[in-house]
Amino acid sequence: MCLRRLLQSSQLQRAWRAAFLKHVQGRRPGARRWTHSGGGPYRAVIFDMGGVLLPSPGSVATGPLELLQFDHGQSNPTYYVKLANHQLVLRKKPPGTLLPSAHAVEREFRIMKALANAGVPVPKVLDLCEDSSVIGTPFYLMEYCPGLIYKDPSLPGLEPSQRQAIYTAMNRVLCKIHSVDLKAAGLEDYGKHGDYVARQVQTWIKQYRASETSTIPAMERLIEWLPLHLPRQQRTTVVHGDFRLDNLLFHPETAEVVAVLDWELSTLGDPLADVAYNCLAHYLPSGFPIQPGLSDCDLTELGIPTAEDYFRMYCLHMGIPPTENWNFYVAFSFFRIAAILQGVYKRSLTGQASSATAKQTGKLTEFMSNLAWDFAIKEGFRVFKEMPATKPLTRSLHTWCLLRTPGTRSYVTSTDSSPAYASKEALIFSPEGLPPRVRELYQRLKEFMERHVYPAEPELQRHQTSAERWTPSPLVEDLKEKAKAEGLWNLFLPLETDPEKKYGAGLTNMEYAHLCEVMGTSLYAPEIFNCSAPDTGNMELLVRYGTEEQKARWLIPLLEGKARSCFAMTEPQVASSDATNIESSIREEDGFYVISGHKWWITGILDPRCQLCVFMGKTDPHAPRHQQQSILLVPMDTPGIKIIRPLTVYGLEDAPGGHGEVLFEQVRVPKENMVLGPGRGFEIAQGRLGPGRIHHCMRLIGCSERALALMKARVKSRVAFGKPLVEQGTVLADIALSRVEIEQARLLVLKAAHVMDVAGNKAAALDIAMIKMVAPSMASRVIDRAIQVFGAAGLSSNYPLAQFFTGARALRFADGPDEVHRAAVAKMELKHRS
Ligand SMILES: Cc1cc2nc3c(=O)[nH]c(=O)nc-3n(C[C@H](O)[C@H](O)[C@H](O)COP(=O)(O)OP(=O)(O)OC[C@H]3O[C@@H](n4cnc5c(N)ncnc54)[C@H](O)[C@@H]3O)c2cc1C
User: What is the pTM of this model?
Assistant: First the structure.
């Protein structure tokens, strides 16, 4: 008698159904919970049915029935069943209404049976029961295989050679699956032949749409992009569909795969989709909640192949040439995961998901879709590079700064070339190459600077040193209104953060770099165009991570220029260049967060318009190092915020915003003011400081250009020892050096911005660190040379040079000390370039 019949029959069936229904349908009275202490992969839920007669093939046994649900996996509930000495695994569909074609346990049963015969290591399947009346849904039984599952892809505790062997074994078994003869295995009709990826893209778009709960911009972009970039040539093999390390059971002593598990998504299709999917962990961070990754691990040290090496290993085993559109496959794989997670999330909302963590899991959809989009951009870039150049690049290679009329502080960048052609994929290093809309914005911005900003500088400077300096200048407010009316407003928000141009002008980072440089020529300009730090970083943070309520309360007034904000991280008692040192505490109390801490150098906190403090502190000092910090939105009128004093930079106060030293004493903040969630502070700060920090670099180019323009005008008109200063060799050398250094830094700024646009902020990490290392020092040197040729006047407030110098010098700390950027560059250099 087969096991199913036994399970369905007599005493056993009654007892089995009673216990199982209690568990599966959530009716648990009488069920005894048991905590499993052996560290195995199952959750501790057990039903003791002592004294039941139990079947075994060909015999009848007496003993307890144990039922444990495996903790692994989000989809088909899987149970360990012990009948006396017999150990089985039962896998069933989840209850409730299911998405079309999902959870097909019948197909799992079929493929495993066929693959076992073809020599692929899979658990031996015993029987399939399609009758839902037995335990509520169809299910099947298979033999229990003992073995090890490695949940962490970094394989902690193993030697590098063991890790290498495990990855090789995984690669081999994948090759084995992809080499199964479909005809001989009777699997020719297991799926459609050809166009697998195209069909998959449509399937997952449909699945995603069926479980969509809100609009995710990256998903929308991918839904348009993927069908346009499908791979042309595809082989058809068995594909597992969820092939990853933790779906493999390894021999406890050797690096041998004893069973490949979880065939729910298997079909016939393009095997490269399996390989790319198998490498996803390589692109996820080690602390990633649902699946630990490897992106921040030193793979060479661990002995684990990189994703690219792993792919090459696969090609070598299979005897195929490596494909060029690898990034497409990775983008598609992340998209598919995002769609799956969205399904899990939706089911968690309707109470159907099989895992307790499903709700949290589903929220990662957005993260996964952003990763997918990063790879789509990389793939787009590769395709673009392969396209034949259609038009010659006729842009000038030189940028000159001129003082049009001596005595006025105007600065222009001009080229002597004919109009240039631009492509959105090209690195545009001169404003003439910008697309027409942006070039027109650039022109208007420059005209505004000439008409309104430079002429206002003397008055704005006077205000900054007057008794009313801690009150915002009415002239600034007036100029803000004018800039807003001319559409020169919120230009900073990158297209990639705000793809629907809901909040900003929709410029790419590179386009903005040209405009931001112009703003950098005047210390007062960024605020006038609502593009000044720290508001820009805070606004981007709110766009990226804020809830709708947080956006309504804080983002909108900031975007309108009605409010200002500050970012409070640095603390006097700890080395704050290492943000993990931050000590201020954030603890939960009566439904509130209560913060205590001492901060300093908080730019903008003294401004009476400052309504929001973005506060970084520790919620859990015992969590892993990068998960201790959280970010809270603190209204500035909350009791307990005490500004001790304004700090000065070389004696300058930078009123009205200033840089404050502040005490936070038992400051109570509603819980909904937490950004993203406890422990996410470090992650958010990285996101906030990445693009925002290079805005400083963009501005420093403008500031250096203006210093050089002033220097050139000065040396032509100033005579010493019988000739103009410009005829002195040292002065000529200083001018030449300054021009060269500005050009070098500008190219690096533009390159960093460009890489951020085409490959994402993460891929641009090296370029971002390099420019942060270069720009402030370069500007300090150029401005210092200008000060030198001005004589003592250069240090006075007659010219903007002294303030420029102070600003550039401070930025060698304010954006993180030079040494930290140098260390980051060196680390990446050593890691990635042999
Ligand atoms: C004008 C200005 C505005 C600022 N605005 C803000 C703000 O709005 N909000 C805010 O939170 N903070 C702000 N800061 C603070 C700024 O972010 C910190 O000063 C900076 O992060 C460095 O921290 P620290 O001063 O504690 O220096 P520390 O961390 O004590 O570092 C001191 C020095 O140690 C050396 N050092 C550190 N790490 C390394 C390394 N890895 N290798 C070699 N040497 C190293 C460097 O020489 C460094 O300068 C501002 C600072 C200035 C000057």
Answer: 0.59
